[in-house]
Amino acid sequence: MSAVSSRLPDFPWDKLEPYKAAAAAHPDGIVDLSVGTPVDPVPEPVRQALAEAADSPGYPTVWGTPTLRDALVSWCERRLGAVSLAHTNVLPVVGSKELVAWLPTQLGLGAGDRVAYPRLAYPTYEVGARLCGAEPVVYDDPVADLDPAGLKLLWLNSPSNPTGRVLAREELVRVVAWAREHGVPVFSDECYLELGWEAEPVSVLHPDVCGGTYEGIVSVHSLSKRSNLAGYRAAFAAGDAAVLGELLKIRKHGGMMTPAPVQAATVAALGDDTHVAEQRARYAARRRALREALLKHGFRIEHSEASLYLWATRDEPCWDSVAHLAELGILVAPGDFYGEAGKRFVRVAFTATDERVEAAVKRLG
Fold first, then answer.
1. Over the stretch 316-340, which tens digit does the pLDDT of each residue have?
2. Which pTM was predicted?
3. Contact partners, residue 208, CB within 8 Å, separation at least 6
């Protein structure tokens, strides 16, 4: 039996371990700005909802409770500007990474099919293609760069991980129109949509982009960053009812169920804007402090107008920058984790605590 793992690239984070050890040796401890995991408390209304739903002895449903679906529809209409959504237009998933990794398989893709994603991108887009035996292809501009023949899935990512770049509304309109013309399904990873700093991200579900119809488009959203729920694995997809209906049938057979307490917590999180505003304020302050410190230290920041990362360079190989910062006790992610085009950049997350961010700023000074 051939190992499926043989199709996959090496797990990138393992390469960072020696630099993590070097950073941890700093007398004042490590400042970990690499993975970008939330460190702030889970909002109280969310924890309360989780606790109240803790007595859940029965199996949850893959599609979620009607209350959850109501919350997903309501949030998409209120926050994304989507119109005329129904329950058939939403689908809860067990964290967005799970969906990204297994989507090509669940869409029935395989050898001879192609999956496209940005040249600088979250590595799991490539992993998803390789898991099902499809061909991963990268692009700078999907309309100009991609041959639609055999293209069975087009990933967009705005705001981008790792660069923080935001696609303009006009660009989204152009790409969606091209994909529809050629019958290419579009999945738009919008997990950082509520974290725009110097630009206002727009969803593909906005009527100005999709023209009021969700045919051929799906947006993907996560509560990990905006609500500090990475540990809950709470996410969802919204858009084309036919595509999501097919995924629902498959996921029912696979038992891909969001736990009932997490469903209740998701309802609470999506219904409360106060904690989102408070968390944005925390991140804004950390972003400002780290950005100024990196610039003074000789780095240049590109894009980074949204998301939880600063895309930084000293115009040197990324691993040289990683090593330099590790000597200061600061751990960052090398840009080549996200594609060859990132080989002279590092991704700096501003998800550390205020105290650790302050420590990093001092070390960079």
1. 999 999 999 999 999 999 999 999 9
2. 0.95
3. 81, 169, 173, 202
